[in-house]
Amino acid sequence: MTSSESQRRQAAMVAVLAGAVMGSALLFAAVVHARQASRRETALRTFERDAARLASVWTYRAPVCDRYRTPLNVTVPEYALAVDVSRLRDIRDTRRRTLDLVEAEVSRLAIELWPREAQFRRISRDDLEAHLVRASPMPFILWRNVDTDTVQRWLMVRDDHPGVTLLPLPKRVYHLPDLAAAVRGRTCLTRRGAPGVSSHCDFPDLTMAGWFGAEAWRDADLSGTPGVEQLVLDAVLFRQGTVRRADPEVGEPVCLTLDMHIQHWAQEALRGLRGALVVMRTDGQILALADSDDGVRPTLAEGTEAWRQWLRGNRRDGIHRCLNDQTPPGSIAKLAVALAALDAGVITPETRIECRGCVPYGPHTVIACHKASGHGSLTLYEALRVSCNAYFLTLAERVGWERIAEMMKELGLGQLPGEDMDVPGGVPSRLAPLCSRGAIYTPAYKREHYETGVEALWRPIDTGFLAIGQADTQVTPLQAAVMVNAVATGKRVKPRLFLDEPYAARDLRLSVASREAVLQGMRQVVHHPNGTARTARVEDVVLASKTGTAERGSGAAYRKDVWLVAIYPGDAPAARIVLAAMAHDLSSGGRDLGPRIAELVTAIKEWEMWTDDQRRQWPGTADGEAVCQAQR
Amino acid sequence: MRLLPPLLLCLIGILLTYGVCVPLAGAPERLYWRRQVFFVILGLGVYFVVARASLPRRWSAGMSAAACYGVFCGLLLVLVLLVGRSTGNGRRWLSVFGLTTVQPAEFAKIAGLWALAELVNSTSGLRPAEALRRHLLACVAVAVPAALIVLERSLGNAFLFCAAAGVLLVSRWLSWQTLLAGVLIAVPLLLPLGVTVHRLRHPPLAVQAEHLAEGRAGIEARERACGLSQREVGSVLAPGGSEGLFSHCPARFSCYLSREGGWNAEQASRCIQIGGYTGCGYRRGRVTILGYLPRTVQHTDFAYCVLSESLGLAGGMAALALVATILGTILWNGLRSASPAAWSFATALAVLVFLHTAIHVGMGLRLVPIIGVPFPFLSYGGSVTVSMFAGLGLLARYSAQRDGIPMAAAGKADGWPGTPDPAGARSYRQPELPPIGAAR
Ligand SMILES: [Zn+2]
Fold this sequence. Notes:
The structure holds two protein chains of two kinds. Chain A is α+β, with helices and mostly antiparallel strands. Chain A is built from 23 helices and 21 strands. Chain B has a three-stranded antiparallel sheet. Chain B starts with a helix and ends with a helix. Chains A and B meet through helix 1 and helix 2 of A and helix 7, helix 12, helix 13, helix 14 and helix 15 of B. Bound molecules: zinc ion.
């Protein structure tokens, strides 16, 4: 009895002891649990960060328009086949197994879609792996630009390939693919994120971006703001929902100041040459910006790597001949010399200077006039008309390089668009970052660019080179247009390629008399029987012009670059349009460019009488539509 | 009435399992919750069979225990090693007609404890030498199934069984005063160990900075600060090297020691933290729903975390309170019973349930390494649910015997081989054997 009693006592105490130990342990667990539960906010924040990712939402890219706000392009879908990895993989799959799975699926599909020839792009395992490492819920694009036949074949087998989707990607097609191609530019597809979407852990969308030309220059305006979606992903990256969504903002259309007719004629004028042509209104709006590479279309299949290479090489990544091709101005620099001399009162237009065929600069050094026998005694009008070197060399000696260089700068040479306007600090121009600055040949320039010593000294002959636009003075066609516009209007305008840019100009305070004198000479260049640009004469049109020829290289590499600038019409107050044409490797501006400019001016004269509706009708619309169809 | 807490836990468990098995986009629907309902019903059936089934008069409790021990701790454990299905690291599943799988180790724990309780309490009225032989036999009876379970590489189960059996034996051998003294001495001794582990896992800020700055070198610096290296820890934990039975231990242990921990541990503690005090709501816990806590273990090894994420601290405490109620009921039932075997078995069963709960909760709270132990009645799992119900059933059977159903001669003939007949026992009559510890 007592033993049973003691046994019971033992058991009871053991039970109490065990209960106490267990109870305190559970209490301890409860305390630890409570402490961890108090960290809820931090844990929630980190979990949000891990489970919720941002993804960009595709937005509509606004069109590029001409000056009548007519879109130059349409956006059409291009089909791509993509694989959705998260629908193929199993929860427990390792990355390696997933890779094998996807690879097998892709090759199965490839064989079904292209049974005979292996014309499909091989998908590299590294690309696939990179996609998996990025842990993206976005589909992995296998083949882009899939043709309609293949799409039809895919539609027949798509039930066998649940993880593969047909993805429409945006593609830009231009109505007038050949016109202003270089300045209008092109787009390409890139992965780009919305603001705040970092590319390493979030998901930028495959979207159109400017590649070169205006598409690239005004990319921010055109593309708008992509939307953002905050996705909730499960552990295998399947989309489980959207927490919030900021809708994309559509881009703003960008209107160029180009007129497609004038652009068309300008390109026609350059056909067969290697050069550039600017047609600008006197208020600075550019009507045509022709590069001789415009309209040259590759014979390669679009979308291939070779095609891409060609475009990139051909367009020199955004370099445009009108804006970036820096060439010595040759005789068109004489306009600046004449203005400087008249402005300083060194001569009057009637002052006569003798041409003996050359001007000596030392015992063995002369600069020849192109008429070896000499032009005889010349007034300013006559000198401009025949572009006499000796006259302007002698004049330059009297005026001095300082005044000439100063005048050239005032006329816009060696300057970027919008620089040094009446507004302090200049007027920002959208074109400025794209243009080359050019250069004016001055002692400072020489010191900077030549070896020290004798080479770097400024000699009298250098003043001569400056005056006739040889040596290192460099001018782009756009600068030439601005210069000749200044002669016509007395104002240096800011050239504008986009409609939304305001007018800006600098009043050069040139006397009307001196401008009129130079213009008189320029009119004679066209209308006098001896004028260097007499080939550019057009019925019923008063045209003021100046030709130029610059030499470069020597021996076998000797080349001439030719210039022709023109003011239409040539009477100062009525001047509405200026033209500047430049071509490489020709012999004479008047002979080679004159007839082409005449044709262009004839067309412009007709164009001026059109109504706006007529101008809106694109040149060769039927052809453009056909090309557009072909591109689709 | 005493089934109410376990059944409540089971209900919560079924709801949780249903909650995590909801088909999501991309994930196939899994019907675990239906199977769990079946398992609970099966468990209840086993409970009533074990509690009420009447055996032939000559068939004593000891004999039943011995038979069960033979089947579950011997036959099935050997069978599983021979024809078991290997999953992950270990071979611990037996396929039943291809319908479901059974983990014999779970049943072996209950059967082993029962047999042990019967064995060590059959010594009343025996000579000291004979009693000592019984106790030695008991030790062997613990060692054999434990070794077999270790061979299955189910270290968690082996540990749980050994711990419960150890408490059973020790509580039989030592007087309660000694036990109390032991606990009072052990607590201050265990404190430094706990502090060391805590320091290893939460190194001072300076060491953390070093760790961040130097990577691998920083880990070594931390080890130096604590006076032991991972390699030494590994060599202690995995004597067999990378090919041995314990090859997976060092990795798990270093995972446990490192602050970052493994993926599962991190997500589990994330569940607990995000649950907060009141939880995110049923089926609204995003760590669970989105599968960050892997869907394969949500309803088994991390059921408590899922519960905590849904219902927060409140839900977790409710579950713990239910477990405490179960523990109390088990201990109370054991005490009310007249048979010493019932007391021992109740203690061992309580320790087993407690350790299951404590380790399961500890895994979620990152207090113990991840060793995959289910929460009794709450976690999904046929074997553990049925075996736990069987344990409760055994206890109910003991109580019923006290309540009047004739016992198979408690303290008289208990059917163990070598037991002398009651008459012989009486002839050796001595003062009832005090517990061994008390004798000293
Ligand atoms: Zn001459």
